[in-house]
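The pair is quoted verbatim as follows:
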Amino acid sequence: MNGSRASDMGEDKIRYLLWVCGRWRWRPTKAMRARGFKLVTFGKELTVRDKARAITLNAEWDRVRNGAQAAPDEREPVYPAGSVGDGYQRAMKLRAAERAARGIVRTKEQTKRDDWPAPGNGLARSSAIVIRRRSPLRLS
């Protein structure tokens, strides 16, 4: 198999798949990196799985570029259940739901500058915080 060819039969090259420093790499452009795509390093031999991964990354980039999908850095991060990040996201969603119920419309800038609930906004009372799962304490 020659270079970054997609198959033995065809002459199609896989975009952004390069041989650099003795390894195959899927190397995004500056515009792609600005949208959250990162360098992916494969092995010295380009396997079918590596090619499929590169083609999947290209398809994801095409969807982001065309506006059909949010870029990786624009997606909401996923935190484990019961963590501080999970609690923060739930609190922010509660605040957004309260604003929507009151008919308050915010600009993108106001949403970006939104911060942790202060007394008098959103979750002011400690009784309003619901603990979904408790983990047992380990004393050792």
In short: The chain has two domains: 17-72, 77-128. The first helix runs from residue 30 to 34. The radius of gyration is 23 Å. The chain is about 35% helix and 5% strand.
